[in-house]
Automatic annotation (TrEMBL), chain A:
It comes from Nocardioides endophyticus. It is a multi-pass membrane protein. Coiled coil: none annotated. This is Amino acid permease. It is found in: Membrane. Pfam families: AA_permease_2. The chain crosses the membrane at residues 42-59, 71-91, 112-136, 169-187, 199-219, 231-249, 270-291, 318-342, 371-390, 396-416, 428-446, 452-471. InterPro entries: AA/rel_permease1. Keywords: Membrane, Transmembrane, Transmembrane helix.
From TrEMBL, chain B:
InterPro entries: Universal_stress_UspA, UspA. Belongs to the universal stress protein A family. This is Universal stress protein. The keyword Nucleotide-binding applies. Pfam families: Usp.
Length: 487, 291
């Protein structure tokens, strides 16, 4: 029942047209979002979503770039993430729709920007699910080895693509199995509750604190010599990789609808979560650096399950490493579940808008979940996780997220100008310094990324835009005015 | 096709007989009320213990039959009905044996004693029947009485857009046409739970999409029934109770559900969604094994 309203829009009109905000909601979708969260709970969401995505793996990647100055890199990346989260919060609060950065962009900045953001966010979620699954595989093997004395052969636990002089194999089987398990759970409609989330946060913080305490017992100040040796380039390169481990802080931003008094609670929760996360990360970095010289981080022995291996080297027996590996295996499982879920729902939203084939927004009548979508996502993520080494993945995730954040910060600036009267339950403090600073910090971090990452990102963006111009543009749901109920 | 009604021996729950009578009157058939009593020990035991047990079993059976006949006289005086007591080691197995014996088309039981009033609660007997029966099984809500409603006037068929469900709808339509009752087709959906941490929110989208899809499927299904006016509705809510409660229910309604077969045996196996819908149903439920 396509109701055609007027003539087709010109290309220029279409690229900048915005999806109207549907204020009229059906009777069934009213009060599902209760304003029930306070600052503390919100902060815990931020911590829960952030800690654990990267810290279990990232030191081994970042320290070789920056040396002991990795601590500065953590602070820079944290600053970028915190500022971005503030900008994101303003956009999210001004546009009361459910969804992700993609949905906000479509409502606020137009179709073309939305597609660019979609490309970024798909990278962020899709590739980070794969990267996290690969990291999980390392800790899983470590745990198997410590508990039962055997681990999967290299052929079944490493990807075939070489990265520097890392071990290669045929397929990273544990990563594939993990993604498959998450897929089954998602198809069955499982969801992680707020309570499970809290437990996961405690597990993650618990094992990280254990690492800090034990790592500090092996304190050796000499390891911090030559702090600035790698210079600014090293710091920004490490920050770019590390940025990956701050993804998820924006979980706080999107929860604005559920928060009592967002103007106060949102910045406090974002800053609180950021404070906790940065503190934990910097402590982990200090503990790791104090326990072993920076040069040892690139040791192939620590290629996976890095933190666990450091603990074993420090204490001299496997028990502590085992505890840490167990904590990592449990909590990273939940991280994979959540990121995979995020990916399916973003594709679902794009499918609902008509920019992807309808199959992506079809719901199985039996399970009430988007089965087709979930299977496609899981297959792609499993292929990436199974065959690409994580080293290539982290930077790709970072670039996607950073670009998305830059667009969001631009969005704040643009919206203040084009729609000054829009009601904004939350406004960025210190406008316009905050969004400008966000863009500056993000660009600085981006400058540290390797050329190959830019090529991958550019290629991916081209693919998405090509698909949009060749297919999505003609099928967009807005073409046939059904959705339009202008407020 | 006779209707077999399971009548309890201990409690005087008349809900099952009431429902059996209503259904029998609607589709024009007779009733066989079965009370299952404990089977006596097959070998002799010293001291006549076994005989005492057998005598007690017979007495219990006779009392149950008398009780059933009293209820039948009240609610099913216009129907051809008889009550029997049969020995058996398991109530559902004995009921199914009796059903097979008379080639019954339907087995009716009551709700669990601890279920909520006016709601369907699956007790152990009903649960076993739903998993093992080759024939449709009807479950009466607790306290169901048919003084006001001699016949059912409308059947709500819970519909899921797949082939098995279409089959159930077809059979429901046939029976309703014979019984002169309306058909309503309903699809139930619930809002998925928020995933924590809440980075992406997409469950409302998923539900909206599901509603659109279901409405299209329902329109097709309604057209396929060949009846002139078939009401069809998608009921959604935050949980199953809300979804089922959102529908308008009349006291002369029944709810018909298909049950998904699993494995190679053509057996009834209730899907988790179906069992949740049943649990919140305020009207009698008929569960049809999907072929």
């Amino acid at each position: 029942m396509s109701v055609d309203v007027g003539p087709r829009p010109t290309l220029a009109q279409q690229l900048v047209r915005r999806k109207p905000i549907k204020l009229q909601r059906g009777p069934h979708d009213g009060p599902d979002l209760k304003r029930s969260f306070g600052t503390f709970q919100l902060m815990m969401f931020g911590v829960g979503a952030t800690v654990g995505t990267g810290i279990f793996f990232v030191l081994q990647e970042a320290v070789p770039d920056s040396g002991p100055a990795v601590i500065i890199s953590f602070l820079v990346a944290g600053l970028g993430a915190g500022l971005s989260a503030l900008c994101y919060a303003e956009v999210a609060s001004a546009i009361p729709v459910s969804g992700s950065t993609y949905s906000y962009a479509y409502h606020a900045l137009g179709e073309l920007v939305a597609m660019v953001i979609a490309a970024c966010v798909l990278l962020e979620y899709g590739v980070s699910s794969a990267a996290v699954a690969v990291g999980w595989s390392g800790y899983f093997n470590e745990l198997l080895d410590n508990l039962f004395g055997f681990s999967l052969p290299d052929a079944l636990s490493y990807s075939p693509i070489p990265y520097e002089d890392n071990t290669t194999g045929i397929i990273n089987l544990p990563a594939v199995v993990l993604v498959t398990m998450c897929m089954v759970l998602l198809i069955r409609g499982a969801s992680e509750s707020a309570r499970v989330n809290t437990v996961m946060v405690l597990i993650k913080l618990g094992v990280l604190l254990m690492f800090v305490v034990i790592g500090l017992t092996a304190w050796n100040g000499d390891h911090f010599d030559g702090f600035w040796d790698k210079g600014a380039a090293g710091i920004s390169a490490a920050a770019a990789t590390i940025f990956f481990s701050f993804i998820g802080l924006d979980a706080v931003s999107t929860a604005g609808e559920e928060v009592r008094d967002p103007q106060k609670a949102l910045p406090r929760a974002i800053m609180g979560a950021l404070g906790v996360v940065v503190t934990v990360y910097v402590l982990v970095a200090i503990a790791g650096l104090s326990a072993q010289p920076a040069s040892e981080f690139s040791d192939p022995e620590q290629q996976d399950a890095g933190l666990s291996v450091i603990l074993e080297n420090v204490t001299g027996h496997a028990a502590w490493g085992t505890v840490l590996a167990a904590g990592a295996v449990i909590s990273i499982f939940s991280v994979t579940l959540v990121t995979l879920y995020g990916q399916t729902r973003i594709l679902f939203a794009i499918g609902r808008d008509g920019m992807l084939p309808e199959k992506f927004s079809s719901v199985s009548p039996r399970t009430l979940t988007p089965t087709f979508n979930t299977i496609v996502v899981a297959i792609v993520v499993a292929l990436i996780g199974g065959f690409v080494p994580a080293d290539y993945l982290w930077d790709t995730v970072s670039i996607g997220t950073l670009m998305a954040f830059i667009v969001v910060a631009l969005g704040v600036l643009v919206l203040r100008r084009t729609q000054p009267d829009l009601e904004r339950p939350f406004r960025v403090p210190l406008f316009p310094i905050t969004p400008l600073l966000t863009i500056a910090v993000c660009i600085y971090i981006l400058s540290g990324l390797a050329a190959v990452t830019w090529v991958i990102f550019g290629g991916w963006l081209l693919v998405v835009l090509a698909f949009y111009f060749l297919w999505g543009r003609r099928h967009a749901a807005l073409n046939c005015g059904v959705e339009i109920t202008e407020s | 096709m006779t209707i077999v009604v399971g009548h309890p021996t201990r409690t005087h729950d008349r809900a099952a007989i009431s429902l059996g009578a209503m259904l029998a009157r609607s589709i024009g058939t007779d009733l066989l009320v079965v009370s299952v009593v404990p089977a006596p020990w097959p070998t002799l035991v010293a001291g006549n213990v076994d005989k005492e047990f057998a005598a007690w079993s017979r007495e219990t059976g006779a009392a149950a039959v008398a009780d059933a006949e009293r209820v039948l006289a009240e609610v099913a005086a216009d129907l051809q009905a008889r009550a029997v007591a049969v020995p058996g080691r398991s109530v559902p197995t004995a009921l199914l044996e009796q059903a097979a014996g008379v080639d019954a088309g339907l087995v009716v039981v009551g709700s669990a004693e601890d279920g909520a009033w006016q709601r369907v609660g699956l007790g152990s007997t009903a649960d076993h029947l739903l998993h093992a029966a080759h024939v449709p099984v009807a479950v009466a809500p607790r306290g169901f009485a048919t003084h006001a409603v001699p016949r059912f006037d409308r059947a709500t068929c819970a519909f899921r857009a797949d082939r098995a469900s279409s089959d159930v709808l077809r059979r429901t339509t046939e029976i309703c046409a014979a019984a002169g009752a309306e058909v309503r087709i309903a699809t139930f959906g619930v809002l998925g739970k928020t995933m924590y941490p809440p980075e992406i929110r997409g469950e409302q989208d998923v539900l909206d999409s599901f509603v659109e899809q279901s409405e299209a499927a329902l329109r097709d299904a309604a057209a396929a029934t060949g009846l002139r006016d078939v009401e069809h509705v998608v009921a959604t809510g935050r949980d199953w109770a809300e979804a089922v409660g959102r529908l308008e229910w009349r006291h002369d309604d029944i709810l018909v559900l298909g049950s998904s077969p699993r494995g190679v045996l053509a057996r009834v196996f209730i899907g988790s969604h179906a069992s949740r819908i049943i649990r919140h149903s305020p009207v009698p439920v008929v569960v049809v094994p999907e072929s």
